[in-house]
């Protein structure tokens, strides 16, 4: 049986203290086909933000406020530039683009949120009670 195809993206590795290492993240082909065949244009163009956020996050957190996804990483960013159809860029004030990546590297979700990465309340709401900030490193990480 052939292995499912993936759309692979290079990502910043938040476990590298020097900030130079990269890892591979991916979206399965079935998801891409669902978005393109389903005429989900806005979702497709938001997907274009994923690449920028994975390579240039302003913060990376571990934890996700969903049962079974507590080990997921969340890359937080403000995408710089790409085709602007159906997307408001630069990021509106107080909004960030969040990309959730499972430990396997699978990109599970991506979306705009009203979110302040420096707000403990926002982090607890988004990531649950057992979240941690991986990047940039803090005094406690």
Mean pLDDT: 85
Number of helices: 3
Strand order of the largest sheet: 6-5-4-3-7
Structural class: alpha+beta
Shape: globular
Distance between the termini: 43 Å
Using only C-alpha atoms, the radius of gyration works out to 15 Å
Main sheet record: 5 strands, antiparallel
What is the total number of structural domains?
1
Q: Tell me the number of strands.
A: 7
Proportion of residues in helical segments: 10-25%
Strand fraction = 25-35%
Pick out the low-confidence regions: none
Q: SSE string, helix = H, strand = E?
A: EEHHEEEEHE
Detailed description of the structure:
The protein has 141 residues and is an alpha+beta fold. The protein has one domain (6-135). The protein is built from three helices and seven strands; from the N terminus they run ββααββββαβ. The strands form two sheets. It has a five-stranded antiparallel sheet with strand order 6-5-4-3-7, with helices on one face. The longest helix is centred in the middle third of the chain and has 15 residues, at 41-55. The chain is globular.
